[in-house]
Amino acid sequence: MKSLYNILFFVFIISIGAFKTALGQPQNLIDSLQTIIKTSANDTNKVDNLNLIGWEYFIKGNYKDALLYSNEALDLAQKIVMPGGIGGFKKGKGAALNDLGLIYMYTGNYPKALDHFLKSLKIAEELSNKRGMTFVLNNIGVIYKEQSETEKALRYFIKALKINEDAGNNRGIAEDLGNIGTIYVDLGEYEKALDYFFRVKKIVDGSDNTDNKSIVLGNIGGAYFHLNNFEKAFENYSEALKQDEANGNKMGAAIRYSDLALLFSAQKKFGDAEKYLNKALGIDTIIGYLDHTKTTYLQLSELCYQTRRQKLALDYYKKYISVRDTLLNEENTKKMVQAEMNFDFDKKTATAKTEQDKKDLVSSEEKQKQKIIILSVSLGLVLVIILTIVIFRSLRQNQKKNKIITYQKELVEHQKELVDEKQKEILDSIYYARRIQRALITNEKYIEKLLNKMNNKNV
């Protein structure tokens, strides 16, 4: 049973549901958008509109026009210069790469599909676009599921589920749970698969996304088919087909026709089964749905074998083998492995570069700190040397001043001593003269006294 959960669009570009509501059916939407882009400037809005047109053609099963518009969106997104001089409109580029990956996947070119998905995933990671990452992770998981690499597929589905659970994104959770449910169908654990599908149904019933509703109904029908509950299987298949036809979803309708054919074959209603298989093959051929053509050829081969048309059964089986080998050839497998290895290598290289840039930044900061420390120490040493010189010169000057002062002091003291000595000499001379004078004065008095006495005697 084929899962259509890989038909996921980058909803951050434009809300498709809003346009459908405003403009009506998909063809009206395409016509309206084509009118808009004829006169619009080559800007991000035009990229968004080109992506929308490509998506609508993809849903209608017109892969040729879908490829044309998605490539045009990719080319324009790469040429646009964003604010700040950044080259390329990354969101638009990521959306175009995702849609191109889907086109290549549904036309059987798995290596090219994986290459585009991995490039889209890288952009989503660069933009930290969690929703975009989950879209691409699911798409990559579906590729591996179709290659019967169940373990790898489950790993990508679980990665997407973890991101959506952390973000509380119910729509994304529904898509992831649905894909995980299809893995359990492949493993033959149908009750466990039903548990996942009903969890999905509970979520999508509360939304207006009819595409997801038809998908989960188809998956529930498939699980019931494997449990031999044909009544429940028919009920869910029929409702899913009704919604796909109403939505113009040709891919979904082709899958539902083959699902119903398988159910009719199990009930031995071979006429009805062949009618529905021919309807499915007609759609597959028109839209180039090579991936589902393989399933339809195998069912037709088994049907013809059961109705004893061995030659026709062999013809259909050969066609089945041819398509299968085209899809699963060794060269394609090598290209897919190489694409994933390149992506892992680029991612590791980018991570290593980021780590090295961090180390270089830390090293640069450390070097800068060391430079600042060395400069600070050097300036400090220079200041200390200058201060030392200033202090030394000041001391020298003070010493000179002290010597001068000391010399002057000694000179003054010496002069003072000289003055004192001279003064002493002068004083001594004065004292000596005074003594002489006093001595002379005494003799005169004595002579006078003696003369007076003599005079008295004469009388």
In summary, what is this structure?
It contains 17 helices and two strands. By secondary structure, the chain is mostly helical.
Task: Note the beta-strand portion.
Answer: under 5%
pLDDT averaged over residues: 81
Largest beta-sheet details: 2 strands, antiparallel
Rg of Cα set: 54 Å
CATH topology-level fold name of the domain at 1-147 = Serine Threonine Protein Phosphatase 5, Tetratricopeptide repeat
CATH class of the domain at 1-147 reads Mainly Alpha
Largest sheet: spatial strand order = 1-2
Structural class: mainly alpha
The oligomeric status of these chains comes to single chain
Portion of residues in helices?
Answer: over 70%
> What is the number of beta strands?
2
Give the secondary structure arrangement, pairings included.
Elements: H1 16-23, H2 26-39, H3 44-59, H4 63-79, E1 81-82, E2 86-87, H5 90-106, H6 110-126, H7 130-146, H8 150-167, H9 170-186, H10 190-204, H11 210-226, H12 230-247, H13 250-266, H14 270-287, H15 290-306, H16 310-328, H17 330-458
Antiparallel strand pairs: 1-2
Explain this structure to me?
The chain is mostly helical and 459 residues long. Among the domains are: 147 residues, Alpha Horseshoe (Serine Threonine Protein Phosphatase 5, Tetratricopeptide repeat); 78 residues, Serine Threonine Protein Phosphatase 5, Tetratricopeptide repeat. The chain has 17 helices and two strands. A two-stranded antiparallel ribbon has the order 1-2. Helix 2 packs antiparallel against helix 3, helix 4 runs antiparallel to helix 5 and helix 12 packs antiparallel against helix 13.
